[in-house]
Known about the structure:
This protein is mainly alpha-helical. Helices cover 65% and strands 5% of the residues. The strands form two sheets. Strands 4-3-5-7-6 form a five-stranded mixed sheet, sandwiched between helices. Helix 16 runs parallel beside helix 18 and helix 29 crosses helix 31. The relative contact order is 0.09.
Amino acid sequence: MGPGARLVAAGVVVVTLVAVALGAGLHLPVLRGSATVVFLFALLGVAPLLLVRPMPLARFVLLAVAGSITGTIGIGYTMATVGWWHPAVPFAVVVVLTSAVLASTVLRDLQQLRRRERRPAPAPLSESVRTGSGRIVLGWIVIGGTVLGLATVVVAAVTHVGDPVPAGLFGRLGIGLPVGLAVLVAAAVVAFVRGRAVAVPVVALGLAVQLAQAITYGMPTVTAAARHVGVLEYIRQFGRTDPASDIFQTWSGLFAGGAWAADVGGIVNAMTIAAWVPVLLAGVTTLGVGVLAAHWLPGRRRPWIAALLTAMTGSLNTTYFSPQSTGVLLVVAMLVLATGPLLETAAAVADGSVQRVLRPRTVRLPQVLAIAVIGVVLVVTHQISPYLAVAALGVLVVFRLLRPWWLPLVVLVPAVVFAALNGDVLGRFLSLSAIGKVFDNVQPPEHDMTVLPKPLVTGLAFDVPAATLVLVGLVAVVTVLVRRDRLHWGLLAAAASPISLLVATNYGQEGIFRVVLFATPWLAVLAAGLPLPAGRWARVGTAVRAALRPAAARYVLAAAGVTALVAVGAFGQTALDWNRVTTRSESAATQWYDRTAPKGSVMLLTGSGNAVPGNTGARYFDVDYVSREALGPYPSGTGYDPDADVSTLTRQFVARTTATKYYALVAAPMGAYDERYGYQRYPDYERLADAMASSPYWHRVWSSGTTAVYELTTAGMRHAAS
């Protein structure tokens, strides 16, 4: 980054802060809220980075965003932990400090820019300079194609805002989404073949689907994010956390940071933060993998092949507003700070000859301090990310790919101390019987109440990305077996290091998914490092190139590979939108319930609780939910009687719970989830909804869209008692 690029970065920060001020002064809540979240989650770290020596743009963006998230979480968590919740005060301090730093760096960069302008004019253009100019033009063509592709996706999303449909995001947006993705694929193909601006379309592909989902649905793509929003709202209302109450309150770093941003930005519904932050996490994590891979992969293309592989095979762990998604980004940033290209030195061997030796760079004190700060924030944000980071760092130390040897302790010690201080909370989620049972812990979640065959799309949404990831893993192993050097064996061991999680716990039957989450970047780096074919395979490649023009062959192969990966990624991310994404009306219903229901109220969920954004408000300790699964098996067979089902549910609900008031929720996503996982046919759920609307046992007290909330009537109480 030259002085011009640094001035642009400073200008983006200034414009964002001006937008915050204008939004607050002119009472424009959308402008104020969005600008505040952008500043705190993406731009807070820009000013400190401008103080250090220049670095490549991709590295700058990664560390700026990681620094922003670290600072936001650190400040928010500190306020919530000590019970001193005054969001405007630290924000004002941050703005003043940022302004002071920007003022000094802008003056410095302007002086450097003037000195460059005073240099003698260059000599007449040579052939190499003309070629360089052509490459610059080609780079701008790639960037222009990327902007056009993203703009097409955005327009398609803006013009088709609404709830999920059975066909997923592609069914919701129509032709606009595939056209936009096709343009992005074309830009990526040109970039890979010509080696220009490769990072730009790769990062765009890494966030395009999440961007379209955020615009179209306006809600998180995973229902579990609702509980995270509940902790966020709790902090906003009470100005503190209650670490002894539950594990979310204990490891509340991300939620406290989100609460700070929401209060400063005047955001009423924090679900918007949960909908939009994943777009940033997805794009910057893709960028981070490319930066990390460049430490070990040669050339301009291979690191971004690794980044694309990671992004397109990551749908087994959907990026959403969660500690784990944040943890992955912060771990990647720590690894970027801790590692670097290996240094080549000459060393004498026993026979007197000189042998080439690769050794790691020694991490300097500024990087160690940065890793320590990120590590502390990671410790208070996610339970397992610090330990998986330590496992990876430890492997790199063992294989002499990282120095100094004690660097993993910088992350491990705070993690152990924090876990020990909160052992009573953490102990509720650990079982001594699970320790050492790796094969049992590796088992994914089971749906025991299935009574109907699952639709094909449900299995394919997991099987296709999983099969692709297995293929990536096989290619990674081939790379190691071909290279057979310390570097590649070390990277393979780093990919295997997350398995250490399964030695101690099944992590709520989700351990295998977290292992995949943290192993994927390493496997992608190895797969992208596959050597070019030699021997007979090289002759096959020569025959293919002879049949096609060399340039055409490269474009065909690149197009086939990128298209296949994007198809896998887009399908895995969107195929289950109908049953996985919360509707606006369903979220509004649970928020209404949280605000208005008396303490001790209980809500019956007429379908699976996995499809309901429960606990989205600050009163999530005061009101409760009971999922249908807790009341017995779903009806089986073809003779479904909705009136009898409502009668049975009502009686079981009241008999098994004690409440000040009884409520029931009917919402389309529950019916969609039940159908997709073989619990109940969607038409039967619609009949259940009609039966609830006409039942004498229930009175509708709130409704919007496809969602309705009912309150138990006196007749319902008599029926339950009979």
